[in-house]
Write a structure and sequence with these properties.
heterodimer; A: 7-stranded mixed sheet; 24 strands; elongated; B: alpha+beta; 2 helices; about 20% strand
């Protein structure tokens, strides 16, 4: 149901008010609808992206290489699902060891999450399998039509008897006394409202969740525990192209028994690529975190021929050794992209800026740095893969020299996966929410989305965001 | 009268002993052959890229 007027709403008419209508907010509302819980969904934007919404999303970024943070978020119904490519990955179990949430419990919502995201079985379900002694191979799955939540769910919510949607309604801050939120203070057009409910869910996005909590804390200092590390442990996935090279098709394909053959292409997902990640043994041995190698293969013979010419100029013997024994067609040019896990660090954080958005809420200052450990991780993984290719005589790899220097290390861009800031954990000294995503020390405030991630993993976060939101809705039903 | 060629016998004895010793070391994780091959890895810089190559690539 669409709410155009927020006047004359009875107190506690809604059991739950959800702030934000991105994948997290909508998934929570849909699950609550199934459980017959009346919910108000507040969205700051409308159905289309307003160019002026950038004024609410910008901020000061203090980082070596980082993107314009206003471009990777969408202040509109459907949130960031209006921008994403539909990629879904599943967390590895080992990466969940520091989370307060049980991995198997969370993944008991998998079937529902796949339904919400429209994950189709193109070739296979999620899998992780051994590639060699050091790397696992895993796949990415895709939402059908790169699922845009606005197109898929607007009509459903419009016709719902349990979900009430109020567009162009900006959340300003929480109101209440110690340990309990009484209402959300918000603005719709030029009117201001205090909306009451039993429970409140903040699902405004990876950065917005921290910003809005920090501002609520500033407005009402008695409401939140002073020690809550709101905004700290911010994480992102650096994404860059550090290497290229060539392989012999037949030798590599022996290691990829999950591939589906069509012509000579590797069909492990919708792209001609293989996803590799270092296994737990390798990570522990070298004290490094995870990453994904997107091993992208170029099957066009013309570009392969030009690549072979390039290598021939460098070392004729490489080509002589390969081509005297193999066909030219067996030689395939590849490049590697990296999507890298970031360790949670307190210094990577969101704080309130002195600059204000058009409604008077402070914008953010974002401090972000890629640690030397992450840089070493990229180097060690690339070297290990390169040596493996040589030892098995499968191919050769060329790594950008920047990778070997901490000072000159360059990333192309970041994946725009804004995570952390309101991390989940057992201890309120280093986390903001508990295993049920409830804010420590507040009885009726919950947070969902990528901001609650305890660790970032190295895959796309949306699948886990939906899992967390479904679990939260289930928990809310139990306590209402 | 047959005269046994002791030299040949001794050589076989010693070489088989050496072979099995190396094999057992390899099985026990020392991976001598792998280590030997790794020594053939060379790093080569060209156009701001570091190539990981085999010694054979230059021979």
């Amino acid at each position: 149901m669409i709410l155009n007027d927020l006047n004359n709403i009875n107190d506690n008419f809604f059991s739950v008010i959800i702030i934000g209508s991105g994948p997290a907010g909508i998934s929570t509302a849909l699950k609550l609808e199934e459980l017959n819980v009346r919910t108000l969904l507040i969205e700051a934007g409308g159905l289309e992206l307003d160019p002026e919404s950038e004024d609410f999303l910008k901020g000061n970024v203090y980082a070596e290489d980082y993107y314009d943070i206003s471009t990777r978020r969408a202040r509109m119904f459907g949130g960031t699902s209006n921008l994403w490519g539909g990629h879904c990955n599943k967390f590895e179990k080992e990466q969940f060891s520091n989370w307060p949430i049980d991995y198997d419990d969370l993944h008991s919502y998998e079937d529902e999450a796949k339904k919400v995201l429209g994950l189709k079985f193109y070739y296979t379900d999620f899998y992780i399998k051994k590639f060699n002694e050091d790397f696992n191979q895993y796949n990415t799955r895709f939402s059908d039509k790169s699922r845009n939540f606005k197109d898929v769910y607007y009509d459903k919510i419009k016709n719902s008897n349990y979900i009430y949607l109020s567009l162009n309604t900006s959340f300003l801050h929480f109101e209440g006394e110690k340990d309990n939120i009484s209402s959300v203070y918000c603005r719709k057009k030029s009117n201001f409202y205090s909306l009451k409910a039993k429970y409140f869910v903040l699902a405004a996005g990876g950065i917005e969740n921290s910003r809005l909590l920090l501002w609520s804390k500033e407005k009402n200092k008695r409401l939140f525990d002073d020690n809550l590390p709101i905004g700290k442990y911010y994480m992102d996935h650096p994404y860059y192209d550090p290497a290229e090279g060539f392989i012999k098709y037949d030798k590599v394909s022996k290691y990829l028994d999950k591939t589906k053959g069509r012509s000579r292409e590797f069909y492990v997902d919708c792209y001609n690529r293989v996803n590799l990640s270092p296994n737990l043994k390798f990570r522990s041995e070298r004290d490094i975190d995870g990453l994904t190698f997107f091993w992208n293969f170029n099957h066009k013979s013309a570009s392969n021929s030009s690549y072979i010419k390039k290598i021939t100029c460098m070392s004729p013997n490489i080509i002589k050794n390969f081509l005297l024994r193999e066909n030219t067609e067996d030689l395939i040019n590849f490049n590697i992209s990296i999507n890298q896990e970031q360790e949670p660090e307190a210094n990577n954080r969101i704080t309130l800026s002195n600059d204000l958005d058009p409604y008077g809420t402070p914008l953010i200052d974002l401090t972000w740095k890629m640690s030397n450990k992450m840089k070493r991780c990229a180097k060690e993984n690339l070297l290990r893969l390169g040596k493996f290719l040589v030892e098995k005589d499968m191919g050769r790899i060329a790594i950008n020299e920047d990778i070997f220097s901490y000072d000159n290390f360059k990333t192309k861009l970041n994946a725009g996966h804004q995570m952390g800031g309101t991390c989940a954990g057992k201890n309120k000294l280093n986390s903001v929410v508990d295993k049920n995503l409830k804010v420590h020390s507040i009885d009726n405030l919950f947070v969902t989305g990528s901001s609650v991630f305890t660790t970032s993993g190295h895959g796309n976060p949306t699948y886990t965001i939906v899992l967390l939101s479904l679990k939260l809705a289930d928990h809310l039903k139990k306590i209402i | 009268m047959n005269i046994k060629k002791n030299n040949k016998r001794n050589f076989l004895k010693i070489s088989s002993l050496l072979f099995f010793s190396l094999l057992s070391l390899d099985l026990n994780g020392l991976k001598i052959y792998e280590q030997f091959k790794k020594k053939g890895i060379k790093f080569y810089k060209k156009n701001k890229k570091i190539w990981i190559l085999n010694q054979n690539d230059f021979e």
